[in-house]
Amino acid sequence: MDMLELRGIDKVYRSRGNAPVHAVRALDMAVEKGEIVALLGSSGCGKTSTLRMIAGFEDVSAGSIALGGRRIHELPPARRKVAMAFEGYSLYPPLTVRENIAFALKSAQLPRAEVTRRVDEIARLVEIEDILDSYPRAISGGQQQRVSLARALVRDADLYLLDEPMGQLEPQLRAVLRGRIKSLLAERGMTAIFVTHDQTEASALADRIAVMEGGVLQQFASEKELKGRPANLFVASFIGEPPMNLLDAGVTRSDGGFRLSVGTDMAFDVNGAGLDSEAASALAGTPQVRIGIRPQKIAVGTGDVRVKVVSNQWLGDQSHVAGDCNGRMLIAVTPGRVAARPGDIVPFALEPRHLHIFGNDGTCIRHAEVS
Amino acid sequence: MEHSSLAGRIFRGVALTLILIFFMFPIVWIFLMSFQTNEQILRIPPRILFEPTFANYEALISGQLRTAAGNLQISFMRNLFNSVVLSSAAVLLALLLGVPAAYAFARFKFRLGESIAFTLLSFRFAPPLLVLLPLSLYYQELGLNDTYFGIVWVYQLIALPLILWIVRGYFEDISPDIEHAYRLAGHSWREAFTRIAVPLAGPGIAAAGLLSFIFCWNNFVFALILASADKQPVTVGALAFVTASGIQYGQIAAAIVLSVTPTLLLALYAQRYLVEGLSLGAVKG
Amino acid sequence: MARLEINAVSKAFGAARPADGLSLAVEPGEIVAVFGPSGSGKTVLLRMIAGMFEPDDGDILVGGRSVVGAPPERRGIGMAFQNFALFPHMTARDNIASGLRASGSEVASRVAAISKLLKIEHVLGHAPRELSNGQKQRTALARALIGNPDVLLLDDPLRNVDAKLRYEMRLELPNLLRRGTAAVLYVTQDYREAMAIADRLAVLIDGRFAQVATPADIYAQPASVAIARLFGDPTINLAEVSPVAEHGMLSAMVAGARMRLGAADGAASPGSCWLGVRPEDLAVSSASGDGAIPARILAITPMHEKAVLLLRLADGTEWLAALPPDAPQGAADDSVFVRFASDAAMLFDRATGLRIGPTHRLKAA
User: Fold this and answer.
1) CB B81 within 8 A of CB B87
2) Are residues C280 and A317, on separate chains, in Cβ contact within 8 Å?
3) B184 interaction partners in chain C (CB closer than 8 Å)
4) Where are the domains of chain B?
5) CA–CA dist A271, A262 (Å, integer)
6) What region holds the ABC transmembrane type-1 domain (chain B) (predicted)?
7) Within a 13 Å sphere around the CA of A180, how many CA atoms are in the beta-carbon half?
8) DSSP characters for A10-38?
């Protein structure tokens, strides 16, 4: 069953003297019960507006929001049964960390022993047991963020909203906390939506990721789907670290398929048998396409594309090799160390089956084959 | 919330109008009074419609005050001139002294720094009357009584703390890194001060200057005690309108209009500098 | 051509000692990244070199000449700030040109050259508030580079730009910085950025250089457990162990399983230790057997094209394993067995945190 349903949501900010800002456009989205969803995008893409409309801090300009079958978009925030962790933490300064976390539970008139038990439990999870009696001003930004997270997660709510939940955490703790929070949410069947600009965070925590840009939902799918079958050029170039290599290619017919040529250095034969009819007709109808290949799919040291190494960076667990091929930059990522130095000529292998093909309007013509 | 009901919007409009009328009424009324004779003003009930007269302004400018008891000499224009000279000189001096001092207080920590800054501010706490008696005795000793310099100096008690504290805040808001960057680019600290810090604190300096100009302009008691007739500003000069044959409301209104005009014009002119982006966006955040 | 040399520099602010006997030399044309956790003293060090405040003790030399006491404008230093610190009332062009004391035509040609290099020619007429964060950062870099300084200080310059741009700059910057002959000191909080950009890394912890070495050396042979924890994402896994030496081999019990830890260095057992194993060096399978630690998968979180498994070992310790995406992973709540090769194990002394073991090759500052 859909726990949360956003239908036709629009958000327009009007301020006198300025042109209206259309922050969110015709957003349709359904979140299942127990699902963890990330709203991912760069700043100004509409993700925070969306979260704030669900929480009730902003009105919707058009559309409706339903949570657990109740229409909530006209209710005040307190009656929507949502819990939220704010990006700016918003802890109550005169209360201790423990009192901050317990605040909503006490308001709900839970027995004292129960409140203590739940606060202790969540504090252990986010590793703040030792600062429970401190005041917010006496603890670090990373600790405040964990308190804010605990204060939201300790509540009973139909939906948990987290705004950049881990942005301030030390990297050493981040990976562990992601795992723990994911397991807590899954164990209790909690439904959660979080906003982030960091795709590592989105893919680590979320079951599905909603990629937003310019107020428009670009694609709403699992991380695997976003990477393997990006809906358009934006998603393809936005998702993935480092970003997908993109090249302009000319299209010509060849026996049994198409030949995609990048300048005079690279040519890829795409077998017509592997194409569905729609893709085939799209390719037949255009002289020019954009092709993309993930850096992880380029093999270094074999193949027939010769590049001049621009940089070769070893990051401890992987090498990032940037190579120049007649003015086109290609980036390859391999798990091992590569001996090449800047200026060396090395071969890169790009296989046709790993190519994503996009039309000039950005729509996807063909995805890479799943390896 | 941006969706408010029609009733709400109407209510807001009405409320705003009422408040506007409440605040603007005295000013409008005085403006109207300045074009009426004393008799018209004192008529009961008062009338909105009347035949305007420029007699009040003529009297002020010519210095001839005609009352029922006869002609009186007044030196209103002289007073106005004094106000301009005294206030401008005081603000100029306070800016020359106060802006560098504000910079020092904002950027450097030095011994007794906070105490000095606070002492300067505390001049604003004491009622002026408290310091007037010793001050006038000192002034007599020093021969500063009834000199422009003496009055400008005492106006520093008003202007300097104001400028110091307002401008200091503006300097503190400028990221020191901006000045560091300018110095690393090969410029001395003096250049960093004049080319970076002062222009960036410009709106604050303008605001502080304007505010202290208004405070100086409106000062009454220092000039009353320390200046004789030919050095008095308008605030003191206005006393002349309380004559033996009654209070000259028309002339007072005209005098108010004339004496408010310079500060009003200054404020209107400076407004765009005051509002102009303090958030210039050079530093992230 | 000038070498930057820092000799036993110390600085205290009250009880805090952000610099405690720091020594480092940066050759002309070399990029040294100063890397450390927040509050470790990185920014203080840069600011002492730039002359924003003076060290309490020690000396700073640029090209063999002490600059301590000299005003910032006479030190031959260019600097890019984390918050950009552009002059808001000047255009990008004037911002960049402020670093030059030269005649009009020369200024114009040099501004044109540097802005072409940094791809900001089209925004030279804009005020800083009209620039995107990426353009601001490039303008700030151009301003620092244009005077051909002897020493270039970069204070976390990529902190405030978005991920995509940060990645591009990570590839571009080393080449850009090596065009000149400046000695470059690059401060960052991101270990990947430090490893990607620098020739050498200086790891700063609590006001001291804990290790100065090439990125690869530091990753493979961290001098202490604190350094090991700073490099790697996810972070290195740790367990308390008491290794024993048998037939020249060290081994120890880890969560109920006997694990081989490589060749013993001499006959003596090292005593109580921290065992460190990097997440990418762990193998996870459903097959039990010798040298396999029983564990349960708590959660699987994809990260950097890998699957990161949060594991709870039999004794309750939480470890992370980073597996290639195509490796079989299992699912949350599965019981699995964890293995690692003996040469992937690092041992650190429990009391001092210092690394021990046969590959011990500590190059202290």
Assistant:
1) no
2) yes
3) 50, 72-73, 75, 77-79, 144
4) 6-73, 76-278
5) 17
6) 80-270
7) 20
8) EEEE--TTS--EEEEEEEEEEEETT-EEE
| Best of B179, B184, B200, B283 to mutate (most C CBs within 10 Å, chain C) | B184
Q: How far is C-alpha B79 from the chain's CA centre? A: 16
Mean pLDDT of C263-279: 80
Contact check, Cβ <8 Å, B1/A14: no
Interface pTM (ipTM) of the complex?
0.83
Residue C355 phi, psi (nearest 5): -75, 140
A65 close to A73: Cβ distance less than 8 angstroms: yes
Q: Which of residues 173-212 of A touch B (CB under 8 A)?
A: none
Q: State whether residue C219 sits within 8 Å of chain A by CB.
A: yes
Q: Nearest by CB to A241, from C235, C299, C304: name it.
A: C304
Strand order, beta sheet including A356-358: A266-271, A257-262, A245-254, A288-293, A356-358, A364-366
Residue C146 gets the label, from left (phi > 0), alpha (psi -120 to 50) or beta, of alpha
For domain C4-222, give the fold.
Answer: Rossmann fold (3.40.50)
Q: In what order do the strands lie in the sheet with C335-340?
A: C282-285, C335-340, C293-303, C306-313, C318-323
Copy the structure tokens of residue C117. Answer: 């290099």
pLDDT tens digits for range A63-101: 999 999 999 998 889 889 999 998 888 899 999 999 999
* Segments making up each domain of chain C, as ranges: 4-222, 237-349
Task: Count Cβ atoms within 10 A of the Cβ of residue A206 and give its class: 0-12 exposed, 13-18 middle, 19 or more buried.
Answer: buried
Decide: A289 and C294 in contact? Cβ < 8 Å: no
C contact chains, 3+ CB pairs < 8 A:
A, B
- Is B76-278 a CATH 3.30.300.30 domain? no
Q: What percent of chain A has pLDDT over 70?
A: 99
Q: What is the mean pLDDT of chain B?
A: 83
Among A43, A176, A197, beta carbon nearest to C318:
A176
Measured in residues, chain A has a length of: 371
- In this complex, the residue of C72, C87, C144 whose CB is nearest that of residue B178 is C87
The pLDDT of residue B280: 40
Q: Look at C303 and A243 and tell me if their CB atoms are within 8 Å.
A: no
Q: How confident is the model at residue A1 (pLDDT cuts 50, 70, 90)?
A: low
Instruction: Assess C234–A contact: CB distance below 8 Å, yes or no.
Output: yes
Q: Note whether A59 contacts B: Cβ–Cβ < 8 A.
A: yes
Is 60 exceeded by the pLDDT of residue B273? yes
What pLDDT is attached to residue C124? 93
CA–CA dist B15, C168 (Å, integer): 56
**Contact (CB<8Å) C195/A183:** no
Q: Which residue in the set C216, C301, C305 is minimally distant from A314, CB to CB?
A: C216
DSSP 8-class letter at A105:
H
B-chain CB neighbours of C84 within 8 Å are: 282-284
Cα–Cα nearest to C147, from C104, C102, C187: C102
Query: Which residues in A lie closer than 8 A to residue B8 (C-beta atoms)?
Result: none
Calculate how close chain B gets to A10, using CA atoms only, in Å.
Answer: 14
DSSP track, B93-145: HHHHHHHHHHHHHHH---TTHHHHHHHHHHTTTS-HHHHHHHHHHHHHHHT-T
Neighbours of A (≥3 Cβ pairs closer than 8 A)?
Answer: B, C
Q: What would the pLDDT profile of C138-162 be if each residue is shown by its tens digit?
A: 999 999 999 889 999 999 888 877 7
The architecture in CATH of the region C237-349 reads: Beta Barrel (2.40)
> How is residue A335 written in tokens?
């798990």
